[in-house]
Design a protein that fits this description.
The structure holds 2 protein chains of 2 kinds. By secondary structure, chain A is α+β, with helices and mostly antiparallel strands. Chain A is 36% helix and 14% strand. Chain A has 2 domains: 4-104, Beta-grasp domain (Ubiquitin-like (UB roll), Roll); 122-250, Fumarate Reductase Iron-sulfur Protein, Chain B, domain 2 (Orthogonal Bundle). Classes of the chains: A alpha+beta, B alpha+beta.
Chain lengths: 254, 637
């Protein structure tokens, strides 16, 4: 059923990383409850262009919840109120007429604001660059069936590998910890026989890098799990801790 | 211009092996002297960047997103084909080759497709070694499922996120090379021009999307891996940023564009809900295994579907195609849905949807069984539409999602500009007039991991390269031209937004150059697109600045290219006076309404050369020779 609602938006505007930001208020009227949150922002931006004003910058690309490019804090929650949903998959039917919506960028020291709601998440690429891989070159791989992997292990690895790298876990954490992100990658790879070979080196390198970048530690707030649009479990943080301890005490890796 | 496909002679099975042996190689110590530019970080771009860096080349990799991991390959759901024959059901390299050639309605190059089928075996091994968590059986071995257009189970998958997992594999290989210093990454950069010096591609000009600066980079070769152009239709299943600009600007620099009118429309997408819709979401076509497609029998019947009795429903696919029913191929299902909606029988508020009803399947198999098969899809549907498909029929409508056309490349994946290569969806080579499911991922990775490392080396070893630097006049001139274009866009200050124009372009293309085409409609569309292009350059308005993060400007640059490209698509559709695969000209159909090919006159690749602004492009033909398969008419009886 198509229904239209009127909304008041308080949106964070910031011209550049080194400029001061502020909230500005916009009215979004006659918004169909069938459209997505980002389409609602599209409408606001179309109006701003016609009025000759600078549009609200926000990252987005696939708009089907898999690329991990979108994300903003909606009324205090990264990606908004719906569990297991990226901002692009959040629809306006979850809001009510005359609601005030506060929209801010992901806030964490390692995520600098580039403009308005756009932040720099290059630090997540830095983490993957720091051993978030298995060291194999192209060519020379053995047959795909050469090493059987128990189905439940493959499934667990897949659970962890479904992380989309959006950074909402960091934004939701009071410590700006990237433990869920690192935990997901460490779990994905160390669960699989192919990744076990470098498991100790990997976990030590990634944890050290996360510390150096300035991501905080985990204090079991569990906000990340609630926020994660792919519902990656904090089980992966527990596995990260186990892998880390194992690497410290039972391996020669440094 | 003579289009030399450079397909090696000899038996099909031996071509690639022999070709590799006959290629010149670059000495390991000399590889570090070569700089390679890769534009785009989807499956093709990421796998090529990683593989070339591993060999020792210096690679500069560019993408428009903030991270290479976000390229739109990530959204592919279904799976990736490989002729492993793990299922022992009769698969072979030859069968995968044949299925792909036939699925493409005999408009692809035999040698390329055969090589693709051969390499499919290595891809799976490579991905497993990287840690891609493919689905497995309880015995621990890789699981397979069947997919459209094939009678064997050869599709490997990672839940409904195969594209994501394959891309993350290629991305991690890429990041490993970034760590080693062999790849330098340039995210948030958009290609504006390709620099050709002494008839060799020697560099690119990009716009830094953060600060708006125009940057120049030189190289010994440039690889375009920037995907397809479905967004010419405004609404498609592609990502918002997906664009034709890199390919189109290569075309303007002299690379030929092949078969631009070959675009694929997927039948089962979530329908358009209103004017402000920004994109369409694909639902796996496996839904048609159990869902029944119908519309109300009477025009204008707006009742709730549950109140419409059986006798007032038209199960048009089952009635028209009694043997295939709801499982007719993609193009047929799509065309029929459009036909019903054009007659005014479409459902939903927009009239642009048909029902896909699971009521009978639930009654027959029980809700649990249906939920096991399609639970995640039903959930996704409910998230987007707010309707529960267990209770009320789904509504679906076709949407564009893949483009078979692309830059013309030879067997070495090189375009008609020496040193400019095109990989993945950006080239035209392997899918003919219609791509089969689970083949796009295969092609992107074959091109990047296993073909380009050999063919690029041969190019580098076989040519000499004069010294070039970014202070060269060609770079300066290009930067200047790009800057003039950007300033012009910003200075128009008209009354319409870029999105508004793009939306209108989408309507024109969808109505006249979409699922089914007529010469009269195409002619009309060409005029309309031209008028719209003129209006764009007189009446758009963009806010923000040139030297700043400016998404309105980014969009305007992309749409300006789409407006010119759309005309090329239409010209190509008019030129091809036959129906084949996804190109359906209503004048050429069988009695059953299927595509009727004209193998005598049109068994060729249509490749277009840019001439001058507002001039007709020049047509070139690459004849397709079929030495190993017999051309047949598709039938769904």
């Amino acid at each position: 059923m198509i229904k239209n609602i009127n909304l008041t938006l308080k949106i964070w505007r910031q011209d550049a990383p080194d400029k001061e930001g502020r909230f500005e208020t916009y009215e979004a009227n006659e918004i169909s409850t069938d459209i997505s949150f980002l389409e609602m922002l599209d409408i606001v931006n179309e109006k701003l262009i016609i009025e000759g004003k600078d549009i609200i910058a926000f990252d987005n690309d696939c708009r089907e919840g898999i690329c991990g490019m979108c994300g903003a804090v909606i009324n205090g929650r990264p990606h908004g109120p719906q569990r297991g949903t990226t901002l692009c998959q959040l629809h306006m039917r979850h809001f009510s007429d005359n609601e005030v919506i506060i929209i801010e960028p992901f806030r964490a020291a390692p995520f600098k604001v580039i403009k308005d709601l756009v932040v720099d998440r290059g630090s997540l690429d830095e983490l993957i660059k720091t051993y978030g891989y298995i060291s194999v070159n192209t060519g020379g791989a053995p047959d795909g069936n050469a090493i059987p992997i128990p189905e439940e292990i493959a499934e667990k690895a897949m659970d962890a590998a479904s992380c989309i790298g959006c950074g909402a876990c960091v934004a939701s954490c009071p410590n700006a910890s990237a433990m869920l992100f690192v935990g997901a990658k460490v779990s994905h790879l160390s669960l699989l026989p192919q990744g076990k070979i470098e498991a100790a080196r990997r976990v030590l390198a990634m944890v050290k890098k996360a510390d150096n970048i300035g991501f905080g530690n985990c204090t079991n707030e569990k906000e990340c799990e609630v926020t994660c649009p792919k519902q990656v479990s904090i089980e992966n943080i527990a596995r990260l801790n186990r892998e880390f301890i194992k690497a410290c005490f039972c391996s020669t890796a440094k | 211009m003579l289009l030399d496909s450079k397909v090696p002679s000899g038996p099909l099975e031996e071509k690639w092996d022999r070709h590799r042996f006959e290629q010149k190689l670059v000495n390991p110590a000399n590889k570090r002297k070569f700089n390679i530019i890769v534009v785009g970080t989807g499956l093709a771009g990421a796998s090529a960047s990683a593989s070339l860096a591993e060999l020792g080349y210096n690679v500069k990799t560019f993408c428009i997103q903030d991270s290479p991991r976000r390229a739109h390959s990530i959204a592919a759901q279904g799976g990736i084909n490989a002729a492993k024959n793990y299922s022992n059901d009769g698969d072979s390299v030859w069968r995968l080759f044949y299925d792909t050639i036939k699925g493409g309605d005999f408009r692809a190059r035999e040698a390329n497709v055969y090589r693709l089928a051969q390499l499919s075996l290595n891809i799976i091994d490579q991905c497993v070694a990287q840690g891609v968590p493919f689905a497995r059986d309880y015995g621990g071995l890789l699981a397979n499922r069947s997919f459209g257009g094939a009678q064997v189970s050869r599709t490997f998958y990672a839940r409904g996120q195969t594209g994501q997992q394959l891309l993350l594999g290629a991305y991690s290989a890429l990041m490993r090379q970034v760590a080693s210093g062999k790849v330098t990454l340039f995210p948030r950069r958009e290609l504006l021009d390709i620099i050709v010096i002494n008839e060799q591609a020697r560099g690119i000009v990009v716009r830094n999307l953060i600060n708006g600066e125009l940057e120049s980079y030189e190289a010994h070769a440039v690889l375009i891996c920037t995907g397809g152009y479905s967004n010419v239709f405004f609404l498609s299943t592609n990502a918002m940023g997906a664009n034709v600009s890199a390919c189109f600007r290569a075309y303007k620099k002299g690379a030929l564009f092949a078969n631009p009118c070959f675009t694929q429309i997927h039948p089962t997408c979530i329908p358009v809900h209103g004017v402000y819709q920004s994109k369409l979401t694909l639902m796996s076509e496996s839904l048609r295994n159990d869902g029944r497609v119908w519309v109300p029998k009477n025009i204008g019947d707006k009742r709730n579907p549950k109140q419409i009795s059986e006798s007032d429903r038209d199960y048009y696919l089952e009635n028209k195609y009694p043997s295939f029913g709801n499982l007719v191929p993609r193009d047929v299902a799509s065309r029929n849905a459009k036909e019903q909606c054009d007659m005014g029988k479409g459902v939903s508020d927009t009239g642009l949807a048909v029902y896909l009803d699971f009521a009978d399947a639930i009654k027959r198999d029980g809700k649990d069984t249906i939920s096991k098969k399609y639970g995640n899809l039903f959930e996704m549907y409910e998230k987007i539409t707010g309707d529960n498909p267990y209770e009320t029929p789904m509504m679906i409508y076709p949407a564009t999602h893949y483009t078979m056309g692309g830059l013309w490349v030879d067997y070495n994946l090189m375009t008609t500009i020496p040193g400019l290569f095109a990989l993945g969806e950006a080239n035209f080579s392997d899918h003919g007039a219609n791509r089969l499911g689970a083949s796009a991922l295969m092609q992107g990775l074959a091109d990047g991991y296993f073909i380009i490392p050999y063919t690029l080396s041969a190019y580098l070893a076989g040519n000499s390269f004069p010294e070039v630097s970014t202070s060269n006049a060609d770079f300066k001139e290009s930067v200047n031209n790009c800057s003039v274009q950007i300033q012009k866009l910003l200075s128009i200050k008209g009354k319409r937004t870029v999105n508004d124009i793009h939306r209108q372009l989408g309507h024109i293309m969808w109505d006249y150059c979409g699922m089914s085409r007529k010469d009269s409609g195409l002619t009309k569309a060409r005029i309309a697109v031209n008028d719209l292009k003129l209006e764009f350059w007189e009446n758009i308005t963009i806010t923000g600045k040139e030297n700043n993060f400016n998404q309105a400007l980014e969009n305007a640059i992309r749409v300006s290219d789409y407006l010119e490209f759309a005309e090329l698509m239409i010209i190509d559709a008019i030129e091809r006076q036959e129906s084949c695969g996804c190109h359906f000209n209503e004048a050429y159909q069988t009695e059953d309404g299927e595509a009727r090919r004209n193998d005598e006159t049109f068994c060729h690749v249509g490749a277009w050369e840019y001439s001058e602004e507002n001039e007709n492009p020049i047509f070139h033909k690459e004849p397709l020779l079929f030495e190993n398969v017999k051309l047949t008419q598709r039938s769904y009886k």
